[in-house]
Amino acid sequence: MVPPPPGEESQTVILPPGWQSYLSPQGRRYYVNTTTNETTWERPSSSPGIPASPGSHRSPLPPAVNGYHASGTPAHPPETAHMSVRKSTGDSQNLGSSSPSKKQSKENTITINCVTFPHPDTMPEQQLLKPTEWSYCDYFWADKKDPQGNGTVAGFELLLQKQLKGKQMQKEMAEFIRERIKIEEDYAKNLAKLSQNSLASQEEGSLGEAWAQVKKSLADEAEVHLKFSAKLHSEVEKPLMNFRENFKKDMKKCDHHIADLRKQLASRYASVEKARKALTERQRDLEMKTQQLEIKLSNKTEEDIKKARRKSTQAGDDLMRCVDLYNQAQSKWFEEMVTTTLELERLEVERVEMIRQHLCQYTQLRHETDMFNQSTVEPVDQLLRKVDPAKDRELWVREHKTGSIRPVDMEI
Fold first, then answer.
1. Which of 79, 195, 351, 365 could disulfide-pair with 218, CB 3.0 to 4.6 Å?
2. From CA 340, how far away is CA 334, in angstroms rounded?
3. Cα separation of 1 and 260, whole Å?
4. The pTM is what?
């Protein structure tokens, strides 16, 4: 367990059943219901029906398609752990404390995909959401280098590619079953045609009866294979083809949603950097004018100093506003990433389980077909055991005999 930051509740407090505590990338503690995927910044109450605090607000992770929230608004309050700014004042001694220096910012934070995270050395080690499951929600926050060396691929994009590949594999399985059905249909037609062949139809006796049953068994077997092909189509091929017909369209919508959040986050980050530079320039201008007034190298009036101070204060306010918007965008991106990756994980499990069930149905139909095929030859076996050449000879002789008196020998 990661020790809580100073002033935060102790992790020894027992949480309600199904709830666990984790740290966000910004180092802020949040709580996850591992059963419903519900998240909240406030510690859930251990007593049912009693909120942990008056302002407690929980954000459910809905099982809806691709992790979209019904309201479409961020449920979490803005994160401000690693980008805090103090409002600039007129005191020249506080001018340098309005924002951290670039060197300090680089040391305390790292940027991934235009998203600023606390540096690993400055924050406790973060827990995994599902440490024993190799879950999607834990391992796809950064970009991965393209194997061809042409760039990078976003972690979320890798998850989408896996989903689309799975859909393609499912489609190819359906095509495979379709080819199997075609083979069965052709085989059944050939068996039925062969059963009507007149070869050896004049065989007589018990052997003739067995031969006729052999030909009839071909017709029965053809019927079995036709039924097998029909069941393969309705119970295996069709479900594979129709499962998530709009899957690709939904994945594109999900991709665009996360991509828009990334773009918004990058835009907010650029605005913060621009506002930070503007504040630095205003502070430098104010400091320079103040120094010039002190050593009397300029005829600037006190009104000019007040004007520069107002501009510096406004620049500080602008930076605070940009930081707040950035933190809101980052909080929403973090929430949607966790929600959507968990949804993609659920969809993958559902797809694999669906295919497994239909392949089990395929093997079951095969077993039934083999059993029915065996039943078509059982009458043949029974008749073959009754074949009696002596009896057949007797019957044939009785029917075709020409006489039973031998010719008398002649004498010379």
1. 195
2. 10
3. 34
4. 0.58
